[in-house]
Design a protein that fits this description.
By secondary structure, the chain is an alpha/beta fold. The relative contact order is 0.06. The chain has 19 helices and 21 strands. A hairpin with a 2-residue loop joins β9 and β10.
């Protein structure tokens, strides 16, 4: 009778998996909480200590580290000497291991976790069993991911798990262990709350191949990490395969919504930078206003919402060619409308709302690593530095424009009015050029600039940007401040009657 050893922290799918094994005539070995869960489901389970002849000890730290377990895992079935050694010591082979590890990463991500608590979440027996099973995968099926349960049962029902599948599962085990150990090493090497880890291990799993990369001559694929609320969570509801560039734009569009999690918002993105952002009392209103930012650029864009997408919203988007629509949830009645558009890709993707995490940028031979940009909602360091302070309507628009500009490529300038963007200047080599472009785009779209506000992601190095904005009709500006020519910039604002607020914080997006 073949034997399976099941010992999991993540118990998703373990009962149906065990039921499938029992139905095929397997014996189940298990430990602790997993054994309890299986018994509660009415399944017959043999405790591991009954085969080791040794009870769990040290508060469960030692329970599977025993020759009766590892001998049964490591013995090569095609070597008579190995099988004779098992028989001599009354050890039966173990033919499948389903193990996942203590939730170390999830534990240390919680606020206030002490070192002592973190240490107890370092698994020892689990990795040892997985390594043994994966090393001997020609004889033992190693399963570390609940996602694989269904496929393993299907292959066993057909006769046996194939050699290729066993090798794939073994590779997955070693990748998982590497990532797990990397998380522990990163945690233990942090010397204080301000330091980044001295070592980083990044495990990425290929989620799907892509037709090509940024250009047809480049290969491309989507790889995902175990980070929560990321691209591993996207679900495509409709449309042809997402491209490399589509995925970049989807990420940029959802990131553009992160600062507005408390309001209904819509962002329209082209080439990884917004061409429209607006908030509204409904998703329809937010979309309509975001589209009005730059109707010409919205054509062929990616539209993202931070709220449920209803049929009404789907109908409001008809008539505008779009590459992708993305929302955290999409009603089925909205899908009835969206499915009529064969070329449209429709994606559900949860928003992370700016959760703290590390951000990576690739350079030749390495990575630049930083904290992910999360805009501070506090206005504690904001200061009015001009003779005239903003009016109440200007304050409303400044509070909208400041988070909006943080999502635009530097040098970034945005014009806002009535809590929507009306002009965007992005990615220019000089800030005055970004002001010129924002004004040009606003005028091209037919917006009235008089009475609008401006947000800049960095300080004004000269007064010319302020002068150009005021000449176009801008009446209030928000910017980080900190230029050696701040006095000159403030004097220009006062001379032109423009209210100016400094935040003390730069928000470049390169």
């Amino acid at each position: 009778m073949p034997r399976a050893l099941l010992s999991v922290s993540d118990k998703r799918g373990i009962v149906p998996f065990a039921q499938g094994l029992l139905a095929l005539g397997w014996e189940l070995l298990s430990t602790g909480g997993t054994a309890d869960a299986l018994r509660k489901a009415g399944l017959v389970v043999t405790e591991v200590d009954s085969i080791t002849g040794f009870p769990e000890m040290l508060d469960g730290r030692v329970k599977t580290l025993h020759p009766a377990v590892h001998g049964g895992l490591l013995a090569k079935r095609d070597q008579p000497g190995h099988m004779q050694a098992l028989a001599a010591h009354d050890i039966d082979p173990i033919d499948l291991v389903a193990v996942n590890l203590y939730p170390f990463r999830e534990t240390v991500a919680q606020q206030g976790v002490t070192l002592a608590v973190a240490i107890e979440q370092i698994d020892v027996g689990g990795p040892a069993m997985l390594r043994s099973a994966a090393k001997n995968h020609a004889s033992v099926v190693p399963v570390v991911d609940p996602v694989d349960y269904e496929q393993v049962i299907a292959e066993l029902q057909s006769g046996a798990v194939s050699a290729d599948r066993r090798r794939e599962l073994a590779a997955k085990v070693f990748a998982h262990l590497s990532d797990y150990d990397g998380a522990i090493a990163a945690y233990l090497t942090r010397t204080d709350g301000a330091a980044l880890p001295s070592r980083l291990t990044i495990l990425m799993e290929r989620a799907q191949p892509l037709r090509y990369g940024e250009n047809p001559q480049q290969r491309g694929a989507l790889y995902v990490t175990e980070e929560s609320r990321g691209m591993r969570d996207f679900v495509q509801r409709h449309g042809k395969e997402l491209s490399f560039n589509n995925l970049l734009d989807v990420d940029a569009a959802t990131a553009a919504l992160a600062p507005f999690d408390a309001r209904v918002a819509c962002a329209i993105v082209k080439h990884a930078t917004p061409c429209g952002i607006a908030i509204g009392t409904s998703a329809v209103e937010a979309f309509t206003r975001a589209r009005q930012t730059d109707p010409q650029s919205a054509f062929g864009g990616i539209v993202a919402f931070n709220t449920v997408l209803t049929r009404e919203v789907a109908e409001a988007m008809e008539g505008l060619f779009l590459e992708v629509v993305v929302a955290p949830r999409i009603h089925e009645d909205a899908m009835e409308v969206l499915r009529k558009r064969a070329a449209l890709r429709v994606v559900e993707l949860p928003l992370d709302n700016g959760q703290p995490a590390l951000d990576y940028k690739r350079v030749r031979g390495g990575f630049l690593v930083q904290d992910r940009a999360v805009l501070d909602p506090s206005e504690a360091n904001w200061r009015v530095i001009t003779q005239r302070g903003p009016s109440e309507p200007e304050w409303h628009d400044l509070r909208f424009a400041w988070p909006a500009v943080s999502t635009v490529k530097s040098n970034a300038i945005v014009l806002a009015k009535a809590e929507r963007l009306i002009g965007i200047g992005a990615g220019q080599m000089s800030r005055v050029d970004s002001v010129f472009l924002a004004v040009h785009k606003a005028r091209a779209a037919g917006h009235e600039i008089a009475g609008s506000v401006l947000a800049s992601d960095g300080f004004f190095p000269f007064a010319d940007g302020v002068e150009q904005a005021a000449a176009a009709g801008v009446t209030a500006i928000i910017q980080p401040g900190g230029s050696v020519r701040d006095a000159e910039v403030i004097a220009a604002a006062d001379r032109l009657g423009v209210a100016m607020v400094v935040t003390g914080t730069r928000c470049f997006r390169h």
